[in-house]
Design a protein that fits this description.
The complex is a heterodimer of chains A (about 325) and B (about 325).
Chain A: H1 31-37, H2 39-67, H3 98-134, H4 136-150, H5 154-164, H6 169-195, H7 199-206, H8 211-248, H9 259-267, H10 275-301, H11 308-311, H12 315-327
Helix pairs in contact in A: 2-3, 2-10, 3-4, 3-6, 3-8, 4-6, 5-6, 6-8, 7-8, 8-9, 8-10, 9-10
Chain B: H1 2-28, H2 33-37, H3 44-53, H4 60-72, H5 86-121, H6 126-140, H7 143-157, H8 173-199, H9 202-209, H10 214-252, H11 257-266, H12 270-298
Helix pairs in contact in B: 1-12, 5-6, 5-8, 5-10, 5-12, 6-8, 7-8, 7-10, 8-10, 9-10, 10-11, 10-12, 11-12
Classes of the chains: A mainly alpha (about 325), B mainly alpha (about 325).
Chain lengths: ~325, ~325
């Protein structure tokens, strides 16, 4: 999940000061500036960046701690400063630090979710754009395949396939990517089918541009923002799907740990050590909500017809303007 | 209508067959059940005998042919685990899941229509923002975790409901509340979006200027037109409900088809797994057709293009000649989402 809105963070003009927000509406602010104006989206982006940083650097810092057993500190309750910072979130029955285990699990969780989203995004989008551009039998066949995948509960497919090929990380990524391809395929096909009838595509065709060049130069740039927004939302879904699989015992296998697996492992200690199941779940929920908030903002920010909403002076004012308009 | 129905049935039957054949082939690759069912001390002869008796030594295509031959006579094979007829086992578990899913979807639709319409009355109002935040949160909470938190709080700490089982009516509360979250959250957003666009259509202004009250405008004019997109999403959500049912049934010990399916996978019980998958696939197939029919029933304008609900494809049925009296101009009102 490369944070796409940061791509022109280095733009020369700084985001406008919040004190006089309405003044520079004419010179369209950068994406980064727009992001800073939306408190929810900024929070979401910051949380996602934190999760990414944890996944990148956390295991190197706390990897040993996560496997170190210390029976003196078994089943310690969280938020007790006497036990030292490493037991801030409590410990399990072997005295392993819950905090360190959460940090290590972050990397596994992202190692599944990010490649799965990226793979389905690339394959689904290219396939969909191609099918939508060419129409005819290629389109019909592609949509039928998408129908077949979609008309069946994805978890069930994952369950069956993961039992055939042992549930390694690569296989989980593969199956999650395959079950999510139709989402991008459908969206990309619809957009591309509409675009290929536009005059600028016609013009390119008249000049003798080959289909692949038209798709690459004229269709893909237009559908990319929509698909990236979709991918942000899908990140949330894929992460939840991996957690469900791990929870059911057919996802990540011990000794690897992911957030979903931590919830499952803590489940049998629910009555005595509630924190073992609750904290990994909180991590999942917070990350998913952050991705959702960012996606909601991206949807508006990448849509030229709606972007002006974000450039308006703050939400409260927006609401009052709408109210006064309505009352008139 | 009949032509349309026939086409629809044929086009949905293809995925059905593909899914069942796929599951059959995949299940055969999951490993040898002989290793799982016979004791470690079993002699090679005993293993060979087990394999021959269950027909596992024949080529995959022959096994598949035998299986489908049996299915046509409603014979789904016997469970390796219990020796019972697989079809009977699946059918016995099915009603429990159906009840769970039915009650959940009915509640989700009812609540979502109320909350969604309420939110749509004042876009960006306080109700709207609470509803949109809640629906976002609902899509972000993993169902298995919600179930565990529910058990911890309401069953263990407060002791209001049992932790699992189906004995009392109170044991329905947690599974349904857990399953409800996702469809409810998604439907609220769809109903709200459809209602906002329906309420800004000219026919609403016409209805208001005729003197219809707010209640009548909403129930008779706006909701009727907003129902179509909501119905499409509700159908997809019901398919997705099977995912949730597997998790929720496992956690709450609900004797439904999701639990049976997981159990039979873990124990390499091919026949039961296939019967479950086939039954689920048939249920989804039926559901899709019912939704298409309802869709056409709700909105006469959709009828000629009803096939376009999922795939933009025109059938040869003539255009509807009886548009609803209140919606002659609003062609965009109930466009597909």
């Amino acid at each position: 999940m490369s944070t796409e809105p940061l791509h022109d963070a280095g733009a020369p003009h700084l985001p406008p000061p919040p004190a006089k927000p309405g003044t520079n509406r004419s010179n369209s602010p950068s994406m980064f500036g727009l992001l800073l104006r939306d408190k929810f989206a900024t929070t979401g982006a910051v949380i996602l960046l934190l999760v990414l940083a944890t996944a990148a650097f956390g295991p190197a810092l706390m990897g040993d701690l996560a496997t170190k057993q210390n029976l003196m500190f078994a089943n310690k309750a969280p938020f007790n400063p006497d036990n030292g910072w490493e037991y801030l979130l409590g410990s399990d029955s072997l005295g392993r630090s819950e905090l360190a285990r959460l940090v290590v699990a972050t990397r596994t969780t992202l190692l599944v979710a990010v490649p799965a989203v990226a793979a389905s995004l690339v394959v689904g989008s290219l396939w969909g754009v191609w099918a939508g551009y060419h129409r005819g039998i290629r389109e019909t066949a592609s949509m039928r395949i998408a129908d077949i995948i979609m008309s069946f509960p994805s978890l069930l497919l994952a369950v069956v396939v993961l039992y055939v090929f042992s549930p390694s990380i690569a296989n989980i990524v593969l199956i999650l990517a395959i079950t999510r391809i139709p989402i991008y395929l459908r969206t990309a096909r619809a957009e591309s089918a509409e675009l290929q009838s536009r005059t600028f595509v016609d013009a390119a065709r008249t000049f003798g541009t080959r289909p692949n060049a038209i798709i690459g130069r004229h269709v893909i740039p237009i559908v990319t923002p929509t698909l990236l927004t979709l991918a942000t939302l899908e990140f949330c879904y894929v992460m939840l799907a991996e957690s469900s699989l791990s929870f059911l015992g057919i996802g990540i296998q011990p000794p690897d740990i992911s957030w979903g697996l931590l919830v499952a492992q803590g489940r049998q200690y629910l009555q005595t050590a509630w924190w073992l199941s609750i904290f990994p779940g909180v991590a999942i929920v917070v990350t998913a909500i952050a991705a959702n908030m960012l996606a909601a903002w991206l949807r508006i920010a990448t849509d030229p017809a709606q972007r002006w909403r974000l450039a308006l002076p703050g939400r409260k004012k927006l609401i009052t303007t709408i109210r006064t308009k309505e009352s008139k | 209508m009949l032509t349309y129905l026939r086409k629809r049935i044929i086009s949905s039957a293809l995925p059905l067959v593909v899914v069942v054949v796929g599951v059959f082939a995949l299940a055969r690759m999951t490993g040898n059940p002989a290793a799982l069912y016979l004791p470690l001390s079993a002699t090679p002869e005993m293993r060979a005998e087990f394999i021959t008796r269950n027909g596992l030594d024949q080529p995959l295509l022959v096994q598949m042919g035998n299986y489908f031959g049996g299915v046509l006579h409603l014979d789904f094979g016997t469970s390796l685990r219990t020796g019972e007829a697989a079809g009977a086992m699946a059918l016995r578990a099915f009603p429990a899941t159906l009840q769970l899913a039915g009650v959940t979807m009915a509640l989700a639709i009812l609540l979502a229509v109320v909350v969604g319409s309420w939110a749509a009355l004042k876009p960006n109002g306080i109700i709207d923002r609470i509803a949109s935040f809640f629906s976002m949160a609902a899509a972000s909470i993993p169902d298995f975790w919600l179930a565990i938190v529910g058990i911890l709080v309401f069953a263990i700490t407060l002791g209001w409901v049992p932790t699992s089982g189906v004995e009392t009516s109170a044991s329905w509360i947690l599974p349904i509340a857990t399953l409800l979250m996702r469809p409810f959250g998604a439907l609220v957003q769809v109903v709200r979006g459809a209602m906002v666009s329906a309420l800004s259509e000219p026919y609403i202004r016409l209805a208001r200027s005729k003197g219809s009250g707010q209640r009548r405008v909403i129930t008779h004019h706006a909701l009727r037109n907003a129902a179509a997109p909501a119905l499409t999403v509700a159908g997809d959500l019901t398919v997705g409900l099977v995912n949730g049912a597997v998790v929720v049934e496992t956690i709450f010990g609900w004797p439904g088809i999701g639990k049976l399916m997981i159990d039979s996978i873990l124990q390499r019980d091919f026949a039961v797994l296939q019967a479950c998958v086939l039954l689920t696939a048939i249920a989804i197939f039926t559901l899709n057709i019912v939704i298409d029919l309802l869709y056409a029933l709700l909105d006469p304008r959709v009828r000629p293009a009803a096939a376009g609900r999922r795939r933009a494809r025109r059938t040869e049925t003539p255009p509807a000649t009886t548009p609803p009296a209140d919606a002659p101009t609003a062609l965009a009102g109930a466009a597909r989402p």
